[in-house]
Amino acid sequence: MSAGLFGLLDDVAMLTRLAAASGRATVKAAGVVIDDTAVTPQYVHGIAAERELPIIKRIAIGSLRNKLLVILPVAMLLSQFAPRLLTPILMLGAAYLCYEGAEKVWGSIRGHDAHAAPADEDDMVTGAIWTDLILSAEIMVIALNEVADQAFLPRLIILIVVALVLTAAVYGVVAVIVKMDDVGLHLTETSSRVGRLVGRGLVAGMPVLLSALSTVGTVAMLWVGGHILLAGSDRLGWHTPYDLVHHAQDQVRHSVKPFGAVLSWFIETAASAVIGLVVGAVVVLLMHLLSFARRGSSTA
Length: 300
Prior knowledge:
By secondary structure, this protein is mainly alpha-helical. The protein contains ten helices and no strands. Helix 8 (193-235) crosses helix 9 (240-255). The N and C termini lie far apart (84 Å).
């Protein structure tokens, strides 16, 4: 009887440790989760209202598949047998993220996005899932680093919990955001004067919010991609870019006491976004040159 009780207490203690570790890992990845939440609504911006939730559902399922069937096995195997490969693989994904962000910036400059025909739904979902793959990889690796001291099985359980919780949180929030205009429309038809006023505000404000989130999502791609490249280059031995940014952060943090922490964060974010934009612009240029070369060879 006492042995069974002690065994139960051990199980409870282990579950408590796993829950605490899962919580730490989830909080640690919160910054990238916010970026993921900002990036996703742009894929349903301008889509017919009845297709918004089905598209978000498809992207959420793809995101969970990314985390559990692609990223988790690869991350666990690499962390166990070849941890040094995690950083270069993440940096390759970051370059793609920078490319996508820079492509959107270039499209906005050319005015291409404003006049483009609506994208095919399957292409849109595929693009969103590819972008999610990079953001999810960053989330899972951050979480993995946070629980690296755990044994293999507890580490695996924690990462599964993180994947489930964060996917539900991100796409739950996205679903609420994109349907708020429908909620507003319903409120405009109620008998309450306050309800009608709130409803009109939601109907008028949600397109502006979605447009702003689309811009934030593009910046987030560049920021996250640039941050991965900045931190990754430092881990691989090229310390100069990271040291310069870190030195600037320290200077600001100590010289501007009331707002030092905020300005320090802004410097790191701005530097990462600039790095992301520069790298993304180079990749965009290379992709366009390759496209021209292929067209030239096909017409020759």
